[in-house]
Design a protein that fits this description.
Binding site for ATP: 139-146
Family: Belongs to the TRAFAC class myosin-kinesin ATPase superfamily. Kinesin family.
Number of domains: 2
Number of helices: 11
Domain Kinesin motor: 56-378
Protein name: Kinesin-like protein
Bound molecules: adenosine-5'-triphosphate
Largest sheet: 9 strands, mixed
Strand content: 15-25%
Keywords: ATP-binding, Microtubule, Motor protein, Nucleotide-binding
CATH topology of the largest domain: Kinesin
Distance between the termini: 59 Å
Radius of gyration: 26 Å
Number of strands: 14
CATH architecture of the largest domain: 3-Layer(aba) Sandwich
Oligomer: single chain
């Protein structure tokens, strides 16, 4: 009898434990369901934002503050931010006339790096969903292109924040997706491509090739696989240092070359085996100001001609896209040829047009704003994922489809 009671008690304890376990399991399922629904709402929001972004080149305009030299020289501000919240910007041209411009966003000198990146983040994340993306900063020297893209150690810019966000989102999605992220850092100077991550002597000329599936790449360029944000910082620093090594005057040199960070993403959907390959370009362009022909000669003249040529080529590509021309002249410069997959077609493009507030820079400011206005009119093609079908076929074969 006593033995029977003990057995009964054991069975009750076992039943209680199993009951608790299934309750826990139920609770876990409920938590997962909530998490799943939250994730789906987030994805839908992102999808809507990306859909909204399709169909044109988005243009964000950012104006830096007047600098110390300008203040002590008594320069005045020609930019009117009264309607900046609505994407409108006024430029007080000569006399009392005012010229108005409209962009997707307008940032005043008071807006910080966090404000700027918040608006770019949905486009950045879409690279994890298989879209090609290009974000570039355009403008006169000294207007803050490098500040927006690279930032400073204490005030990091779009490049670092992009990778930080990509790691964060890929971690959140680790139940359903696996991601491989690698990074290349290139510089285009005088129409020559330089690999800023290459170590040792690099006498080899780097050229752009088209792969069989149509995408463009530079054979031989270092693609550094990055697993976490610490590694990213090291890679970005290595690129930045290499840029400095190649020149006597870093700032001078940086205004005369295009610095291009390429982030390659290979994604695998763990549920259906679908694989995508996509690329995100983050580009700090050379200064867009036109130098008077009489002011420059020798090496400086060659630099200026190459910058003019490549920025004109960028303008021509944008115009051809706007005109829905059957031929888009990507190959007229190294810059546009490199960006080919991420400019036009089914890619998403974001341009930061950087301006100075100073009356001394009025001419260059108007020229940059006109360039950006033309770019904003460009309609791109339908949104399509860069599905890597070879990987999909491999996975399907493995699971016996
Ligand atoms: N929004 C901003 N807020 C505060 N300082 C800024 C801002 N934008 C630019 N600056 C400062 O202005 C100076 C010039 O900026 P930066 O070097 O980024 O210009 P740039 O357009 O990249 O020039 P370059 O073409 O010569 O490379 C830097 O000292 C930078 O810190």
């Amino acid at each position: 009898m006593r033995e029977g009671t003990e057995k009964l008690e054991d069975r009750l304890r076992l039943g209680e434990r199993q009951g608790l376990e299934s309750l826990c399991h139920f609770k876990q399922c409920e938590d997962l369901k909530v998490k799943y629904n939250e994730e789906m709402i987030k994805r839908k929001k992102l999808f809507n934002e990306v859909q909204e972004a399709k169909g044109n080149i988005r243009v964000f305009c950012r104006c830096r503050p007047l600098n110390k030299a300008e203040i002590s020289a008594g320069c005045s501000t020609v930019v009117d931010f009264d309607a900046a919240k609505d994407g409108c910007l006024g430029i007080l041209a000569t006399g009392s006339s005012k010229k108005s411009f409209r962009f997707d966003r307008v940032y005043t000198p008071k807006d910080d790096q966090v404000d700027v990146f918040a608006d770019a983040s949905s486009m950045v994340i879409s690279v994890l969903d298989g879209y090609n993306v290009c974000i570039f900063a355009y403008g006169q020297t000294g207007t803050g292109k490098t500040f927006t893209m690279e930032g400073t150690e204490l005030n990091r810019g779009v490049n670092y924040r992009t990778l930080e966000l990509l790691f964060e989102v890929s971690k959140q999605r680790s139940d359903t997706f696996s991601y491989d992220i690698s990074v290349s850092v290139l510089e285009v100077y005088n129409e020559q491509i330089r690999d800023l991550l290459a170590t040792g002597p690099t006498s080899k000329r780097l050229e752009i090739k088209q792969a069989s599936e149509g995408s463009h790449h530079v054979p031989g360029v270092v693609e550094a696989k990055v697993e976490n944000i610490k590694e990213v910082w090291d890679v970005l620093q290595a690129g930045s240092n290499a840029r400095a090594v190649g020149s006597n005057n870093v700032n001078e040199h940086s205004s005369r070359s295009h610095c291009m960070l390429s982030i390659m993403v290979k994604a695998k959907n763990l549920l259906n085996g679908e694989c995508t390959k996509s690329k995100l370009w983050l580009v700090d362009l050379a200064g867009s100001e036109r130098l008077a022909k009489t002011d420059v000669q020798g090496e400086r003249l060659k630099e200026a001609q190459n910058i003019n040529r490549s920025l004109s080529a960028l303008g021509d590509v944008i115009s051809a896209l706007a005109a829905k021309s059957s031929h888009i002249p990507y190959r007229n410069s190294k810059l546009t040829h490199l960006l080919q997959d991420s400019l036009g077609g089914d890619a998403k493009t974001l341009m930061f047009v950087q301006i100075s507030p100073s009356d001394q820079d009025l001419g260059e400011t108007l020229s940059s704003l006109n360039f950006a206005t033309r770019a904003r009119g460009v309609e791109l093609g339908p949104v399509k994922k860069q599905v890597d079908t070879s990987e999909l076929q491999k996975t399907k074969a493995m699971v016996g489809f």
